[in-house]
Amino acid sequence: MFNKGISMIHNNNKKITGSYWCSKKALLLCLILLVFSYSVKAQEPNVVDRIVAVVNDDIITLMELKEVINPYEKKIMSLGYSPEKQRKMVFKVRAETLNQMIDMKLTEQEIKQLDIVIDENEIDSAIERVKEANFFTDEDLRKVLASEGSSIEEYKEKLRQQMLKSKLVNYKIKSKIVITKNDIKKYYDSNKEQYEGKSKYHLRNIFKQVPDQASKQEKDSVFEKMEKALESLRQGGSFGDVAGTFSELHNASKGGDLGVISIDVFSPQLQKEIAGMKEGEFTSILDTDQGFQIFFVEMIIKEKGKSFEDASLEIEEKLYNEIVDKKFQEWLEGLREGAHIKIIQ
Q1: I want to staple 342 with a disulfide (CB 3.0 to 4.6 A). Which of 4, 54, 239, 307 is the partner?
Q2: Entry pTM
Q3: Where exactly are the structural domains of the chain?
Q4: pLDDT score of 44 more than 50
């Protein structure tokens, strides 16, 4: 989309490339900043602003960029990297941030051209919803903002910008997205493992620690003790009683009871061992990072999964958000292609 200023210097919708130029509005701003730079330089040589990017009729200044990236630069400098790595990281953050600021300028220009506005009542309503959700009084909210170095006025302006962008996305993108039942069903069928009920296991264990830097002889000695525990289990001994006799963990007095656990918390090695077991079964002796262990599955609790009907709204929202993000990026790329953007190093 071309605005009035751009159409004056574009020929047949082809972007002019080559030497740097400014539209009338941007040229005026360039001159003002140029005069400002010379005047400031004469007084304070270390505080000089300049233009770092032109976006159609608007500009982005070095001071605006620095205001955004300063916290990130300070963080990078505090990490103890070499000067060369610091320089590269700062350069990367600067480039990424400048591109984000260009996208923001393009978005703001579209909002202005479409005459999208947010009135004070909408902002006040949004603030009331935030206060209700967090059980804040007006004073509470102001205190929280102050602790973050912000004010209610700045917070209102941030809300305004967020709401303007949301209205723009609704107008340009969301209103044109349709998620069909077939789309939802296709996703459900392709990702059934996400909606199947997960199993949780009531586990017990027998544990013996292997000392750090243990010799082979010491490790073999610990293993022999675990073999005696395993033999007791094979002869029909109660796992709880055997755990109480042999295990070194604090839960030994409770028969090695670990409670109900999702095996997702275990290492891949243990997940593989336990996932294929049935109730009442115990493992062989497992050499784990913590030490030698034997696990016993006392009970398997199967959680109820989500049917297609139960999962439909969740899937629709997921697909919707994914498409919105994708379409918004495509829309921004289209704006960039049709805009005059000049980055000044």
Answers
A1: 54
A2: 0.51
A3: 114-172, 198-302
A4: no
